[in-house]
Amino acid sequence: MFLKNLGMAVSALALIAGGVTSAAADNGNVKVGMITTLSGGGAGLGIDVRDGFMLAVNQAGNEMLEVVIEDDQRKPEVAVQLADKMIQSEKVDILTGIIWSNLAMAVVPATTAQGKFYLSPNAGPSPLAGKGCHPNYFNVAWQNDNLHEAAGAYANDAGFGKTFMLAPNYPAGKDALTGYKRLYKGDAAGEVYTKLGQTDYAAEIAQIRASGADSVYFFLPGGMGISFLKQYAGSGVDIPVIGPAFSFDQGILQAVGAAALGVKNTSQWNKDIDNEANAAFVASFQEAYGRLPSLYASQGFDTANLILSAMDKADVKDADAFRAALNEADFDSVRGDFSFGNNQHPIQNIYVREVIKEGDVYTNKIIATGLENHADAYAADCKL
Amino acid sequence: MSLVLLIEQVLNGLQSGVMLFLMAAGLTLVFGVMGLINLAHGSLYMVGAFAAAATAAATGSFLLALIASLAAAAAAGAVIELAVIRRLYNRDHLDQVLATFALILIFSEGTRWLFGSFPLFLDVPSYLSGAVTLPFGIQYPLYRLTIIGVGLAVAVALFLLVSRTRLGIRIRAGESDREMIAALGVDISRLYTVVFALGAALAGLAGAMVGAIQSVQVGMGEPVLILAFVVIVIGGIGSIKGALVGSLLVGLTDTLGGFLLPQAFGLFMDASSATSIGSALASMLIYILMAGVLIFRPSGLFGRA
């Protein structure tokens, strides 16, 4: 009896407490739910996005912004559950954080359909950029094809005419090869889809050796890229390699080591982009976390600053005004110039970088601008 | 498609099969002798890889790193046998699955706590790096040849251990009748700890050897664990010979399937759909193989009926 009464007392208290916070939440406060990958194989990417995001939040010190963070374990079903929980019981206004395109495809359409905002700090699958675009969906990173398009353009400039292409068999992998081929003018020496999460690439490397290719293009984010590069370096095949930044980010370069030196890769961000916001970001990230930021961290940082800039202009409860404020992208991006196209995906420069060694640390240096003020190929299909 | 490419792919299949054998041998010993389903076997593989990476970073010696991986995995195996596994022998398989699954989570988060979330660096030593030229002008990475050699050597050593030594006699006896050998005065619980540590050490060695060409990261053991279970089901539970044959079958099927199927589909359809259908089918191939074996030999190729 006593226990039952105690239980009732506690739930009554909880109700009161809940009532108080929800009343406070109506004053221009914004609650952001971050669903990202913090455990398992792809955790480095999610941790970088989270750390970049929280760095901007802490620097702003805006008490009206509240962030809840959950781990999706890189599993679509977990991400969907978390999104439901965040929308229904946490009552968040904005969702963000998803790294992987297959998870984004599972979460984003349902989120925007419920009238919540979704700001993508990483995944940019093509269906959400074209016909499936939505007024409440903003992509702060890139459309999936973008970095690959820049790599295709770079292959033309470098005089490659016979590329062997390699990507995992999932939405972003398909987008990768489509993107590369969009601007690449040469022939394909071979095209292979590997298993997502595959760790041994001996069979593919043997095919590369036999294909007579003059260049290799590969999109293998996270641990997959580490395995591929190490095995490629040990195989005795010396055909030049090009890739998007995802296999050459700060988090994994140290694990690849010398095998990556000199490889050209494409990115919308690098730590040597010359602007004030970027210099401050790189310095403060290093101070806060004791490591160099990656492009994922820069995307998280920009996403948080975009939200903060919109909060200064409009109340999130007034969806139209808040959407307009987001669309202006009135914040100092660490990438320099940054604006949204009609499908609310970025229009930005994409750079060609080279892997170098600075002291003991492997990192990237920009060697050229691959594509200037580049928008994505799906914008025309979007009716916004 | 040239003969050289085909031979190279067969070598790749052998290499992945031999590594799988190191995992599957420990798993099948533990399952056969103790009747225990150990899901945490993949965590021991990860422990081996992390121990090797940490040792290589501290000392710069790959040989020391391999020794460290054997020692760390065997020690981790012995500790979990004494602390947790020992209590599970008389429970049913569901309890074992639950407890060893918990061990996976503890090992993963423990490793993350110790080493962080970013992959560690572990590379092939300089004297094993690069490629060698084999007959027919085949270029093949020296390190992968070494893996094949080490794996086969371990297989021979295990075979001798089980068939020629006193410990082997006890293992076989424990497999067929554990009450009887306990009654004959063999310290069965010590035997179990030794077998478990041995299986763990093999998993750790596999983790370290593979870690040098793949990435050393949290969660690296679970995909291999699934394949290792497929192997022991195909080979027959408890049989070392079955584990060897099963590993080679799975390794070859997986590698050659992924390489040949897209080409076979390419004969009668356009290149990009052949690639995607072929790759999709290739990833199912080992499970189809397992189902096929189970239809004709329900207890596996070398299992006792």
Textual characterization of the structure:
The complex is a heterodimer of chains A (384) and B (305). Chain A is of the alpha/beta class and 384 residues long. Helices cover 44% and strands 21% of the residues of chain A. In chain A, the strands form two sheets. In chain A, strands 6, 7, 8, 9, 10, 11, 12 and 13 form an eight-stranded mixed beta sheet that branches. In chain A, strand 1, helix 2 and strand 2 (65-71) form a beta-alpha-beta unit. Chain A starts with a helix and ends in a 10-residue tail after the last strand. Chain B has 305 residues and is mainly α. Chain B has helices spanning 3-34, 41-59, 62-83, 93-115, 142-164, 166-176, 178-183, 188-211, 221-235, 240-266, 271-296, and strands spanning 131-134, 138-141. In chain B, a hairpin with a 3-residue loop joins strand 1 (131-134) and strand 2. In chain B, helix 3 runs antiparallel to helix 8 (188-211) and helix 10 packs antiparallel against helix 11 (271-296). The longest helix of chain B is centred in the N-terminal third of the chain and has 32 residues, at 3-34. The model of chain B has no long low-confidence stretch (mean pLDDT 89). The A-B interface holds A 38-41, 43-44, 47, 169, 191-195, 197, 199-200, 202-203, 206-207, 209-210, 223-224, 226-227, 230-231, 233-237, 251-252, 254-257, 259 and B 1-2, 4-5, 8-9, 12, 15-16, 108-109, 112, 117-121, 123-124, 129-131, 139, 141-144, 210, 212-220, 223, 255, 258-259, 262, 271-272, 275-276, 279-280, 283.
